C-alpha cells in the first residue's frame, strides 16, 4: 500500500492545490494522447475543488468528465451528482469539457447500470485522474458497507465496469464504477475534509475487512500511490 499525504489548513487551500495538480495531469495527458478522462465524486466535499478547477486553463475540449458514482435520481434532483458537476465544474473554462454521466432514465438502476457501463466502456482507460470522496461509514464511490453488490463491486478481478448498488445507508439506489476501473487509474486522489473523516481514515488504515470499511479496497488494490488530500 503506497500513500502520498497532502495536508492543508483549509478547504480553500486544498482546493487550490488539488485543482492545480489535476489541471497539470489533464494537460499532460492531452499533450501525450490528445485526450484525457477525469472521474469525479459527488456529495458535498468537492464543491470548492470544482469551482477552482473550472477556472484552470486546460484544453477542456479534449477532456471527458465522468462520475465515480451517482445517485439513481434525475439530474433535476438536488441529490444528483451530475447536477453538482454541471453547477460547479462544467462552466467557465471547463465548460468546454464533454460530460458522460452514469444516470439514465431507465425504470430501475439495474438497467441504468448496463447503459452506463456501455458508455464507460467507450472511454479510454485507464482514466487519467480519479477523485474519490469518503463517507464517515468508510464508503467510497458507492461501495457501502451494507451494499447488496459490495463483494462484486470491490472484486479486484471483476469484469464489470459499473454496478447498481442498494444500501440502507445510501438513501437511494446508486450506480458506481467498480474497483478495477478506479484502481487502474493513473492518478488516484482521496479528498477528505474534517476531523471525523480524518479519524475514519486512520481507522481504515489500521487494517481489517474491506467489506467493513470499503475505502480499504482502494488502498489495497490501487496500482499507483493513493494521494490523500486532507484539510
Ligand atoms: O454519497 C456520496 O458520498 C461520498 C461522500 O460524500 P460527502 O458528502 O461526505 O463529501 C461521495 O464521495 C460520493 O460520490 C457520493 O455519491
Describe the overall structure.
The protein has helices spanning 11-33, 47-53, 81-88, 109-121, 150-153, 179-183, 195-205, 215-221, and strands at residues 3-7, 36-40, 63-67, 69-71, 98-100, 129-132, 162-165, 174-177, 188-192, 226-230. The protein is of the alpha/beta class. The chain has eight helices and ten strands. The chain has one domain (3-230): Rossmann fold. Helix content is 34%, strand content 19%. Helix 1 (11-33) packs across helix 2. The mean pLDDT is 98. The strands form two sheets. The protein has a seven-stranded parallel sheet, with helices on one face. The site of ligand LXAUTJHC has 10 residues, from loops. Pfam families: Glucosamine_iso (PF01182). Belongs to the glucosamine/galactosamine-6-phosphate isomerase family. 6-phosphogluconolactonase subfamily.
Amino acid at each position: 500500500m503506497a500513500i502520498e499525504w497532502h495536508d492543508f489548513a483549509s478547504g480553500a487551500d486544498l482546493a487550490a492545490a488539488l485543482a492545480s495538480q489535476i489541471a497539470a495531469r489533464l494537460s499532460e495527458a492531452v499533450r501525450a494522447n490528445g485526450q484525457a478522462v477525469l472521474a469525479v465524486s459527488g456529495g458535498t466535499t468537492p464543491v470548492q475543488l470544482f469551482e477552482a478547477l473550472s477556472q484552470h486553463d486546460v484544453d477542456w475540449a479534449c477532456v471527458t468528465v465522468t462520475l465515480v458514482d451517482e445517485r439513481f435520481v434525475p439530474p433535476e434532483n438536488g441529490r444528483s451528482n451530475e447536477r453538482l458537476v454541471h453547477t460547479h465544474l462544467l462552466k467557465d473554462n471547463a465548460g468546454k469539457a464533454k460530460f458522460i454521466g452514469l444516470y439514465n432514465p431507465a425504470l430501475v438502476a439495474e438497467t441504468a447500470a448496463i447503459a452506463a457501463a456501455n458508455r464507460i466502456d467507450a472511454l479510454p482507460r485507464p482514466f487519467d485522474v480519479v477523485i474519490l470522496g469518503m463517507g464517515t461509514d468508510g464508503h467510497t464511490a458507492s461501495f457501502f458497507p451494507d451494499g447488496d453488490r459490495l463483494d462484486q463491486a470491490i472484486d479486484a478481478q471483476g469484469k464489470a465496469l459499473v454496478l447498481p448498488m442498494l444500501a440502507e445507508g445510501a438513501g437511494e439506489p446508486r450506480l458506481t464504477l467498480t474497483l478495477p476501473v478506479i484502481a487502474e487509474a493513473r492518478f488516484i486522489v482521496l479528498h477528505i475534509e474534517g476531523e471525523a473523516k480524518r479519524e475514519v481514515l486512520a481507522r481504515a488504515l489500521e487494517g481489517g475487512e474491506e467489506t467493513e470499511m470499503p475505502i480499504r479496497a482502494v488502498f489495497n488494490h490501487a496500482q499507483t500511490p493513493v494521494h490523500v488530500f486532507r484539510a
